[in-house]
Write a structure and sequence with these properties.
The protein has 22 helices and five strands. With 513 residues, the protein is mainly α. The chain has a five-stranded mixed sheet. The longest helix is centred in the first third of the chain and has 26 residues.
Amino acid sequence: MPTPTRSRLTALTERLPLGVPPADGWERVKTGYWSRLVPLLALVALLTHLPSFVRPVWSPDEGFLATQARMLADGGVLYDTVVDRKPPLLPWLYQACFTVFGSASLWPLRTLAVAAHLVTAILLASIARGRWGNRAGAGAGLLYLLVSIGLSPEDTQAATFEVFMLPAMVAAFRYAERRRWLAAGIAVALCSLTKQTGGAVLLPVLWMLFQDARQRGVRWIPALFKIGFGFTLPIALVAVILTKPKGFLFWVVTGSGDYATSGGAWLQMVGRALGNSAILIGAGLGFLLPVGRRLWLKYRHRPLPVAGEEHGSTTDLWMWLLSSLVAVSVGFHFFGHYYLQLMPPLVLLGTGAVATSAIRWKPVLVYTTAAASVFWGLALAWPGERLDRTTEVATAVAAQTTPKDTVLVWGMHPELYWLADRKPATRYLTAGFLTNYSGGKDGSPSVGEQFSMANAWQTFDQEIAKGLPEVVVDDSGLAPYQPGMIPKIENLLDTHYEMVGVFADTVVYRLKR
């Protein structure tokens, strides 16, 4: 006759997610599972993102962060003499890496980006393993790493905001799933302090809280207080560290209203949204088809061949996906790197659909690996004409100036400052702050001098008055903010500068003597 202790253990094992071994083998698998899986995930993370190391810079976002970090290291003040519409954690990380390793290369940031992908994969594996068992955990981690390069290489190989946002976002969901509400609130805050849209994960966190309170009949107010406290404390600490909470609030929240609008360029934005959605669907079709199949069968009211369905509720995952879709749509820009935020909930939904059906893992992993191989090869063969021209212009700028001189880049490619190793003449590293222009707004009527951020031109004039930049690079091309459409810039060039070089549609001007 079994002892009471043995009976309780048996009852507990019956409540474990499908695929988790019984109690007598639990410790062996618990210690061996991660020691085998983590090295495999680390290898896949490195291999899939190895192309990120072959270029000095992948995107203007990387160039902005690198230039910003140099300005901070040179005594700049964030949200004052160095500005951006993003939270401070990633600029600080760039600055720390430059302090330790120097600012000539981004390889330390690329290495940390690989580590961020690895942590995200491990957290997803932990969530999937707890719900659907060991094989599902391994599958979720591998699927994420394979699909994490399933967009344009400029969006997936760069060490930018979304990449470093994902670990905290997945951690917030994982903590909420385990009813660790204070930790979940802190994770949401860290996510939001990396990129504002990361805060969207608060929606599924709160949903899980209220569902837990409803099902277990417990009080939800103390847990809600823990989430709120955990969320506000890190943000308050950051505001105190910055010493200018008002500037932090403006640049991160209230000052981005005009930027986060469609501006009337609907055709471009719809095309970009559909295009990037199609690319991501193609990259993840192996695990997205099972999700579609499950939805179709549910809609058709057909019984599903589900094993352990009591452990397979995915409503919270759908809430997570919904909140991420809203976050991707904010601002109506639909840039490819925004779609990285959709990958974790999509991977978990796909993992659940495979793990609780008759679908085999092998074809899912084979297709996703094949798709990842295509994107990996695409990254290695990605055209480099734009980077070559930018490097050529940066070399010319460096030759025309000394390290003490300042430079003004009138365009949307701040990596010119970093590649030339020259100081910006203004805190506004792109023309967007002064014209309300952003990528894909070529047809927008809300671009021009009159649409600048509040007091931006007054600040710009004050900075230029302290000392004219030695070189001005007009990188606007045919964009709606070209000097002929911006009287202040046109007058500055006509009065004080002479043309010294033309590189395709980029013109270099030098101060008249």
